[in-house]
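Hi U.,

Before I forget, here's the chain from the pilot set. I'm dumping it here mostly so it's searchable later in email.
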Amino acid sequence: MAAEPLSQKEIEDRLAELPGWSLDDGRLTRSYRLDSHFAAAALVVHVARIQDELNHHAEITLGYDTVGLAVSTHSAGGAITELDIALARRVRDAAPAHGAR
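Structure:
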């Protein structure tokens, strides 16, 4: 069963529960700043595990001390779905353990 696109109102409601996440060019996006490159890389590895568990993957950009994520659901025509929200929530919950802000 394919994931159903969320309405604009549903997206806005979900984003209210995800501080720092926003809708940018049709994708949910968030950047995290960390204390070091090692901490940023560790967060990327943690996010990779989450993505494999959900079988849903974001575009990840690793900088020196930053991690950027952008996600939408390709199987829903690039729309935002509950899969994207679930991924964002899991990353939100994992990021503080790596010192992300």
